[in-house]
Amino acid sequence: MVQQFTKSITTLVFFLAFSMAWAQVPRGPLVLKPDAPDRYVVVPGDTLWGISTRYTDAPWRWPELWGMNREQIHNPHLIYPGMVLLLDRARGTLSIAGAPGTGKLSPRIRAESLAKEQIPSIPASVIEPFLTRPLVIEPDGLEKAPTIVATQQDRVILSAGDRAYVRGIGDSKEQTWYVYRPGKPLVDPDSDRVLGYEAIYLGTAQVTRPGDPTTVVLTATMQEVNAGDKLVAAGPARAINYAPHAPDVHIAGRVMAIYGGLGKVGEAGPLQILSLNRGRADGVEIGHVFALYNLGGTVRDTTKARNDPEAQIQLPDERAGLAFVFRVFERVSYALIMHITTPVRPLDVVRTP
After folding, report:
1. What's phi and psi for 80, nearest 5 deg?
2. How do residues 244-264 score in pLDDT, each as one tens digit?
3. What is the C-alpha to C-alpha distance for residues 21 and 23, in angstroms, rounded to an integer?
4. Of the four listed, 49, 135, 213, 227, which is most buried by Cβ atoms within 10 Å?
5. What total of structural domains would you count in the chain?
6. In this structure, is residue 247 part of a structural domain?
7. What's the rounded Cα separation, in Å, for the pair 342 and 54?
8. In this structure, is residue 191 part of a structural domain?
9. Range of the domain at 134
10. Is there a single domain that holds both residue 152 and residue 117?
11. Is there a cis peptide before residue 309, judged by omega within 30 degrees of 0?
12. What is the dihedral of CA 97, 19, 121, 45, to 10 degrees?
């Protein structure tokens, strides 16, 4: 896919104190891949994560390749299809052909781009359904939400195309609503405290007649809809415009659940979504990358007697992959598995890489 280079690449150390002084987690030298391309043309479908993996096995250190400061990490989308990226091997930095400087992103690049669509941080199609839909609700979070109080011809189960009657929308101008019901509790494995409840997405409804009750038509359904289910305004889509980056400080947490229960029971694989027991209050932000670890178990030392207190050996946690945080709530966050070597399960560990 990329040009192979026979010349070996030595470890490159970046002295970026001017732009990375805020980083508090000590990190070793960043190593470029031996086959990292000297020149790469950005194409539609590329992501910041994907381009970064062409250059290094530590894609969360993308900001170091560009010499980004904190503000640029939070708004890195000045890279478009058609741009030519150049690698300065001596300095270990990337730049854009024709742009001033070596590794700095400049707003003037927007005028030079060959396409209107900025490349996203991670595959947008995978997480798009989760950018507007609330994933976590407080224990009483849906109590006062608009409620389906009656159904077309008193049907017990509603599906796409059916009408429903809703109280609580009032004079809202919102035309599109998501239908939910409270789901399973999200329990912190460390404290046994319920941090919230997953919201079960049932479908989408469109207002056809305002009033009290409001008439809506279900335009799409993922599960059966019943009287008593709740509505939440759809609102505008939220763009993910943070560069992949490690947390500034060490953060450790646990996997609480696998969203949607896809794959093997209790196991998650590539591009599946994990709920984590760390959120905004713990310093987690969109764009953070966590290393995933399978929780170490205990085994018996067969060289010792069964009743020997030292016969039980605690195994270390084993590195399993990487996950990118794309939604953050107060005590909970959601991350997309970007790379994995072994399946991830609830209770597994996440840490600053």
Report:
1. -130, 155
2. 899 989 999 999 988 765 444
3. 6
4. 49
5. 3
6. no
7. 22
8. yes
9. 129-233
10. no
11. no
12. 10
